Amino acid sequence: MARPLSRRSLLQAATLAAAVPALSEAATGRAVAAPAAAAAIPAAWTVRPFGLEDVRLGRGVFADKRQLMLDHARGYDVNRLLQVFRANAGLATGGAVAPGGWEGLDGEANGNLRGHYTGHFLTMLAQAYRSTKEQVFAERIDTMVGALTEVRAALRGEPAVLSVAGKFGTAADQVRGSYQYVDLPAAALGGASSVTLSVWVRPTHDANWTRIFDFGNDTTRYLYLAARNQNGVPRFAVTTSGAGGEQGLDGTAPLPLNQWSHLAVTIAGGTGTLYVNGTAVARNAAMSLTPAALGTLKNNWLGRSNYSADPVFAGAFEEFNVFSRALTAAEITELQNHRAADASTGRGDLVSYAFDETSGGTFADASGRGLTSTLRRTWGAPSHPGFLAAYPETQFIDLESRTSPDYTKVWAPYYTAHKILKGLLDAYTATDDDRALDLASGMCDWMYSRLSKLPEATLQRMWGIFSSGEFGGIVEAICDLHAITGKAEHLALAQLFDLDRLIDACAADTDILDGLHANQHIPIFTGYVRLYDETGEERYLTSAKNFWDMVVPHRMYGIGGTSTAEFWKARDVIAGTLSATTAETCCAYNLLKLSRTLFFHEQDPKYMDYYERALYNQVLGSKQDEPDAEKPLVTYFIGLTPGHVRDYTPKQGTTCCEGTGMESATKYQDSVYFAKSDGSALYVNLYSPSTLTWAEKGVTVTQTTGYPREQGSTLTFGGARASFTLRLRVPSWATAGFRVTVNGRAVPGTPTPGSYFDVSRTWRAGDTVRVALPFRTRVEKALDDPSLQTLFHGPVNLVARSSATEFLKAGLYRDAGLSGDLTASLTPVPGKPLHFTLDGTEWAPFAEGTEDPTHAYFRRAEPKVVFGGRDSGVANPAKADGTTLLDEVWAGAPFRNKGALVARVRSTVDAWVTAGLLSRADGDKVVSTAGAASYEP
Fold first, then answer.
1. Alpha helices by DSSP H, 244-385
2. What are phi and psi of 104, to 5 degrees?
3. Per-residue pLDDT, 34
């Protein structure tokens, strides 16, 4: 192991590296060239994954679910995703409509998370292309990367006019979300005592208080025309004493959207008049204030308000003229059909902008005064040329001084940056597109330029803020980038996201998770494991391993999910947290990533046991089994309350969980097989129909199975001879046996549940390995309420389909076999694999993505002591903690024979009689019944 690098030494190295001029796009005429191959496998990994292109899914539930998502990936218009990026850069959006929801300005928290979904979508496309090699996915990646390259180039420069067709000729368009406005020189109003302001506008959004123009110093002295006031109609006002002293003119009807309207305001002789489309709609004979009373003003804007909270005007401008006299009603009527230059009025003598420009960022003044105006952004310009986002840099700036969460102001900007960064890296890995790598590297250069200047205390405060400070898996992505670029500042950047309070507590195995937002913290640890890979600093790996153990099983539901209403509660509280908002889907996605990454370092089977649990249950069940080109149809929360119906179109759409759901459904095969880093072993972690191409060995392995409908799998070898150990995972639940044959001959050994079973030999084409792993039916009890349980058949979580809103009651011991298997209590449903009935209620796999009301947990009810279907007539007694006599008896399963079971019954009865929990007479009845009953194996 290399000597660990301190954060200080990394920052020093990064500073030196940053001082060396980089080969820029401007210097070479193209993006920075990338290495020919993706990053090497970290030296710290003792096993390594195969690429998605190396493992082909066979027919089965995973392929079926993936096909639904691939169809969505093909059908969704990526220009809708790009709309928010193009708008932010002031580029034409081609009429594309933003997706809405979290990706729209009108969505939750003003769309402060927009751009994140584009990153998810890029990752989905990259995974789809790697898995299928369908050209359509590569073409869509190319479109998106090309567009994002144009967006960054536009953000690097000054705003440029977006020329569109106008009322008479051309007009200047202000796309909603561009935050652009026109800045006029201070002399624009000329101190006139009489004035006319005339303008053509085509608004595209109906937000109140958007300014058509606003001339002022602040919120005390100003003159403005708003497209809509609080009542939705135009308003003109002038004041020298703030809002309370406004002298105003209000229209009578809203301006129509996407249509040209002419507005004019005249002030003369103490009277102000507002005209809309040539008609005087308001007159104020007590308007004593004029531009002359305002004096010289510093803010002279078209499209922007002196009130910073007001929205920027969205729409187009044409023909803005200011005259030093009040035009007559007839002259204003004439302007309805003519440009000012072609009307009797002539051009405005104070300023006159036709907006005929088709390029550049300035507008010529035709008044003769030479007052050229300039297109600007409300937020200025990016602090670094690598900046790329679908919104201004303001959220990042605000976070640096923020002390409390407010997602309407700042909503996880570094989380969104992570999604974009990861999407670009995945696009690069899939297509070798240098532009994607250059964009990703530039983003990290920009982040380093911001964060490296901040004091350590500021960083710790930022990352500790709920929601606003959330940064997702950005550390992992930065480490992946560093492995490609080798830039010291990239590694230094990754360590700037250290959340020391969390790392140190978890490294010390101190559980501080109670009250934390679950998905804000899970992906952090995958990044810290990668930081261990890059730096050798042990606390990163130790903290991640201990953190995992704090969640699994202590805060895990049976399906593999975690969190309630997005947060964690106290350790070992499961029943007490069940709600309609349990098991956020993103949490399962990120716990799978963490489990897999930890397994690369330490091949503890518990990580892959968890992987199977969460993948085969929550992740599969989070995807609805229906096609939809517009929506991925993935859950946000999965409620575990009785009768819950899954919502596959959550919130307003384009949520984080829909994003990770798109990713999950296009990488189901990523952990089926791993290889020992030295090539000496092949791990079969999951039983899933698939074909592995192990190019290094020249070997193929085809796994044929209907698992989990089939209780086993067959692996067939092809290609060249190769010597290695085949390591077959023995699931922890596989207590009914695990048998392996090679070419029909049994392999000696005693497989242990929760381990790997090794078969070492020289493999040849045609060799066949058959794995049989019989399922048993079992329950898992809620840690804080043993009577509340969830049902499993092998790896499959079974849920009752019932609209009842109270926990169903069910008994299972009456027909239990000597093995402890509860399957005999269930009746299979003909023609429906893995469907059963129990007490008249149908139970089905959680993985089925239906809208049936379900019960994931039920109330265990065993009122009588019954063995082998024989009723003893004795009530089943319980201890104070809810543990019953039958619970203690069957906790000893499996039993090698009936005698062993009866002996267990006798010893348990004796203990309960001694404790005063059971009478001797009833105890004798229990023992007698157990001895008289017959049992399945």
1. 291-294, 329-334
2. -120, 150
3. 33
- Pairing status of strand 315-323 against strand 681-684: unpaired
Contact yes or no for 355/166 (Cβ under 8 A): yes
Q: In what helix (H) or strand (E) does residue 831 lie, and over which residues does it extend?
A: none
pLDDT at 14 over 80: no
Q: Cα(241)–Cα(856) distance, rounded to whole angstroms?
A: 64
**147 C-beta neighbours (distance < 10 Å), count:** 20
Helix extents (H) in 536-679 = 538-551, 585-599, 605-614, 620-621, 656-664
User: Residues near 380 by Cβ (< 8 Å), separated by ≥ 6?
Assistant: none
- 322 DSSP β-pair partners: 197, 351
Chain centroid offset of residue 36 CA: 30
Nearest CA among 689, 755, 763 for reference residue 726: 763
Pairing of strands 858-860, 809-810: parallel
> Cα(180)–Cα(211) distance, rounded to whole angstroms?
12
DSSP strand pairing (722-730 vs 681-684): parallel
Please report the pLDDT score of residue 717 as a whole number. Answer: 98
In 2-110, beta strands by DSSP E? 47-49, 55-57
Cβ atoms within 10 Å, residue 688? 26
296 conformational bin, left if phi > 0, alpha if psi -120 to 50, beta if neither: beta
pLDDT digits (tens, 9 = 90+) for 298-357: 999 999 999 999 999 999 999 999 999 999 999 999 999 999 999 999 999 999 999 999
Q: How confident is the model over 185-233, as pLDDT tens digits?
A: 999 999 999 999 999 999 999 999 999 999 999 999 999 999 999 999 9
Q: Side chain identity at 422, as an amino acid letter?
A: K
Residue 933 in tokens = 């009953």
Q: What is the torsional sign of CA 902, 907, 913, 918? A: negative
Residue 823 sits at φ, ψ, to 5 deg, of -60, -35
The CA distance from 822 to 836, in Å, is 12
The residue whose two tokens read 């169809």 is 71
Nearest CA-CA partner of 398 in 384, 414, 389, 409? 409
Given a contact cutoff of 8 angstroms between Cβ atoms, the answer to whether 587 and 563 are in contact is yes
- Count Cα neighbours of 537 within 13 Å in the Cβ-side half-sphere: 22
Model-wide pTM > 0.90:
yes
Residue 97 near residue 83, CB atoms below 8 Å:
yes
Burial class (CB in 10 A: 0-12, 13-18, 19+), 293: middle
**Maximum distance among all alpha carbons in the chain?**
115
